[in-house]
Amino acid sequence: MSEQTDRSVDTEHEHHGGFPVYTPVKAGPNYGRLVEALRRLQDLAVSTNPPDDVVEQAIEQAEALGDLLEPHQVPEGKSPAGFNPDLPGRGSLLQPPWLIEKFDADAVRERGMFRLFHRGGNNAVHGGTIPLLFDDLFGMIVHASGHPIARTGYLRINYRKITPIGTELVVEGRVDRVEGRKIFCSAELRTPEGTLLCDCEALMVQLLPGQP
Ligand SMILES: CCCCC/C=C\C/C=C\C/C=C\C/C=C\CCCC(=O)SCCNC(=O)CCNC(=O)[C@H](O)C(C)(C)COP(=O)(O)OP(=O)(O)OC[C@H]1O[C@@H](n2cnc3c(N)ncnc32)[C@H](O)[C@@H]1OP(=O)(O)O
């Protein structure tokens, strides 16, 4: 058992439910470029209509890339993907590629753009992508404010204005109050000028020992 998963090295760890100990994962100098190249492919995958001979070449190249990467699969928490706070979206292809700008007990703030592959209808961001941004932010807020890992009980989102793709935006949130295991949080998504696009309230529930 590695030191990272051996809970006997961290007696406080029972407070994190059944989660393993997460620590940031260093990325090699080119890793961020790889993730960005893959995001470009995601943008193109949702915005192209290539002829079939191009589709065939793309399949061959995509399958070759899969074959190249597959031998390097690692367990959760061992890849920089999602675990490197210095990379956009913490290096995760799932997350919008935003950068953490503030990370402390008062608040967590991120800045970035939604991409073409986040498009819903009529060039607006897909309404399901916004809870993803908020949910991940609340996970970080819980961590930054010194609470053990909590899971989202609910997210309540108000979509106030259309959220545009390809435009810089800012999201910021904080813990509002704590009642026992219940951590009530809120956050807002705004333009850099301060126009409110969406706001969200969340209940994060601190896990019991062994809870998944
Ligand atoms: C990423 C690491 C990077 C490297 C390190 C660097 C930086 C760190 C950065 C990030 C932080 C790290 C990690 C983040 C990890 C995780 C965050 C994940 C966030 C999620 O994305 S998670 C996915 C979606 N989430 C779920 O999949 C939850 C499914 N669910 C459950 O697992 C249970 O449901 C649970 C556990 C939530 C509660 O269950 P339970 O049995 O333990 O407790 P119970 O039901 O008794 O609730 C206790 C009290 O909460 C009230 N309550 C509960 N739910 C409510 C609701 N909806 N509305 C109103 N009140 C509610 C009850 O009414 C009661 O209140 P009261 O005590 O007053 O009666």
TrEMBL record:
It comes from the Bacteria. The keyword Nucleus does not apply. InterPro entries: HotDog_dom_sf, THEM4/THEM5_acyl-CoA_thioest, Thioestr_dom. Residues 1-17 have a biased composition (Basic and acidic residues). Its EC number is 3.1.2.2. It is an enzyme of class 3 (hydrolase). Keywords: Apoptosis, Cell membrane, Cell projection, Cytoplasm, Fatty acid metabolism, Hydrolase, Lipid metabolism, Membrane, Transit peptide. It catalyses: decanoyl-CoA + H2O = decanoate + CoA + H(+); hexadecanoyl-CoA + H2O = hexadecanoate + CoA + H(+); (5Z,8Z,11Z,14Z)-eicosatetraenoyl-CoA + H2O = (5Z,8Z,11Z,14Z)-eicosatetraenoate + CoA + H(+); tetradecanoyl-CoA + H2O = tetradecanoate + CoA + H(+). PANTHER family: ACYL-COENZYME A THIOESTERASE THEM4. This is Acyl-coenzyme A thioesterase THEM4. It comes from Rhodococcus zopfii.
